[in-house]
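Annotators were shown the component list below and the corresponding predicted structure, then asked to write short factual statements about the assembly.
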Amino acid sequence: MLIQRPHDVPPSEITPKSVFAERRQFLRLAAGGALVLALSDAHAGDRLPAAAASPYSTPEEPTPYRHVTGYNNFVEFGSGKDIPAERAHRLRTSPWSVTLDGLVHKPRMLAIEDILKLAPLEERVYRLRCVEGWSMVVPWVGFSLSTLLKQVEPLGSARYVALESVVQPDTQPGVRLPLLDWPYTEGLRLDEAMHPLTLAAVGLYGEVMPKQNGAPVRLVVPWKYGFKSAKSIVRIRFTDKEPLTTWNKLQPDEYGFYANVNPEVSHPRWSQARERRIGDFLKRPTQLFNGYAEQVGPLYAGMDLRKFY
Ligand code: MTE
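Structure shown to annotators:
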């Protein structure tokens, strides 16, 4: 993505890799494990209660943990794939709440502890395809975003949701620079947001969400380019108009509102026909809707996918 790497971050703000690596203990989901985490005390890296496997999971081999948590885009911490893993430990994720408002019957501000209790957690192994041409397979833990959205009873006039990421200038050096228009905002049509594949993710690899991946709660929309999947969400606003989104505002000819993965619709600077799975040497063909065409194709019936890219 076209952003400058900031140079004004003092070295004191960067965690040495060795300290970071010590914290990252790989903890697999223990099938049927009886550990019940006091979720109010959940910290990035802590183990989550065992999550049921989801029928939406791909049988593909997950990308190794070190890549999933070490090769990230989180511009609030700066640009460069290794920067979020070095700096995101400073993000304050407690207390945390998500405001749901706009065109709804019952606007609410929900604490993360209450969000975690809304539905049983599921493990969803999804492909994640970044617009830059790389992809991963990530075992996310979470539940369908629709469960959260239904809490506030959307009005009939609500047609879209806008999702906002947190802005913490004292912990996120990137937001002190005009790299993007802060807060990072993404949007979905309401039917896309309510689709069961759309995930409110609170963890990965059986752990509480690592901060560099968007703790404590992030979006995962597996059939869209990765930039749609906003991290560290603090607000979800229901609207009747297509919301302005960060990347679309910055470069509308490059980043569309829909951003559905499509090998036949190229980005002006990158062909989208092929992708490199992180860890692989050779590229592989990209699939329409990132391989989720059967589930989500009907959402776009009759739409010109070149025009609504
Ligand atoms: N959310 C916020 N708030 N800030 C970001 O910079 N980057 C996006 C998306 N969500 C981003 C964000 C992009 S471009 C991608 S590809 C994915 O997060 C990367 O998610 P990952 O680091 O967990 O792989």
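Statements collected:
1. The chain is about 15% helix and 20% strand.
2. The chain has one domain: 39-300.
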